[in-house]
Design brief:
10 strands; 5-stranded antiparallel β-sheet; globular; alpha+beta
Length: 232
C-alpha cells in the first residue's frame, strides 16, 4: 500500500496581506530546526479570506506516537506570528482548540499514483451538520465518480462554523477531467445540490464560482531527508 501521512489541520484568523511575513517565520525555523524529529514530515500554509489554514503532515497519528508538537521552536513561532495569526473558534481557550476535527475520510483501495495534488476547499457549514455532510460524500464516494475524476483521497474537517475539505487527486487524470468537465457535470451537480442545505461560501460577498472556495498556498515545507516506509 502507498504510504499516506496523518494530517492535522489548524485553522485561525489571519490578518489579510500578512502571508509573506508568516511564511518567512516558518521558513526560518523549518531550516534551523528538525520538525521531522517530532514526527512532522511536511507542512502547507494557506490563506482564504481572513483565514489561516495550516496542514501538518505527520509520520503517524499523534494519539499513537505521542508527538503532538509541530516544531521544536513552537513558543518562538507562536510569539513571532502572534500579531498576524489569532484564534478562530468562539470557544477557544487553548491551542488545541485551533485543531480542526476530522469527521470523514475516503481513500480508494490499492496503490495511488505518486504524482498527486492536494487542494484545500473552505466553506461555512451549518451547526452540527457533520453527519449530514459525511452522508452525502459517502453516497457519492461509493459510486464511480471519485475514481473516474482522479480523486485519490478525501478528508473532511470542521472547526466552529468552518468546513475544510482536503481533496487529493491524481494530477494527470484530474487535469484531463478539467479539460472536459461536461462528462461528469451531472453527477457533480447532484452532490453539490445535496450539500447545499449544509454548506455555503465562506465569503459570499465575493464568491462567484466553486474556484473561489479554494484556499491559496503561500508556504510549503517537506522533510527532504525522510523517505516513506517500504510497501509491505
Amino acid at each position: 500500500m502507498t504510504f499516506r501521512p496523518f494530517r492535522n489541520v489548524i485553522v485561525c484568523h489571519l490578518v489579510p496581506g500578512s502571508e509573506e511575513k508568516v511564511g518567512a517565520v516558518f521558513g526560518h525555523y523549518d531550516q534551523i530546526t528538525r520538525p521531522q524529529d517530532l514526527g512532522v514530515i511536511g507542512r502547507t500554509l494557506l490563506s482564504h479570506d481572513d483565514l489561516y489554514i495550516h496542514v501538518l503532515d505527520r509520520k503517524q497519528d499523534p494519539e499513537v506516537s505521542g508527538q503532538r508538537r509541530g516544531l521544536p521552536a513552537f513558543q518562538q513561532i507562536a510569539q513571532e506570528i502572534g500579531p498576524f495569526v489569532t484564534p478562530y473558534p468562539r470557544y477557544w481557550e487553548n491551542p488545541s482548540h485551533s485543531v480542526a476535527k476530522e469527521f470523514y475520510r475516503w481513500v480508494p483501495d490499492g496503490d495511488v499514483p505518486a504524482d498527486r495534488t492536494l487542494t484545500v476547499i473552505i466553506q461555512r457549514m451549518k451547526h452540527d451538520a457533520e453527519s449530514d455532510i459525511a452522508r452525502v460524500f459517502s453516497d457519492s464516494d461509493a459510486g464511480r465518480l471519485p475514481i473516474e475524476t482522479g480523486v485519490t483521497g478525501r478528508w473532511l474537517y470542521s472547526i466552529d462554523d468552518v468546513f475544510v475539505h482536503l481533496l487529493e487527486e491524481d494530477k494527470a487524470k484530474a487535469d484531463a477531467v478539467r479539460q472536459n468537465p461536461e462528462s461528469h457535470r451531472p453527477a457533480s451537480a447532484r452532490t453539490m445540490n445535496d450539500l447545499s442545505p449544509y454548506l455555503s461560501p465562506y465569503g459570499p460577498d465575493h464568491w462567484k464560482t466553486a474556484k473561489d472556495s479554494v484556499a491559496n498556498v503561500f508556504y510549503r515545507w517537506k522533510a527532504e531527508d525522510w523517505t516513506p516506509p517500504a510497501d509491505d
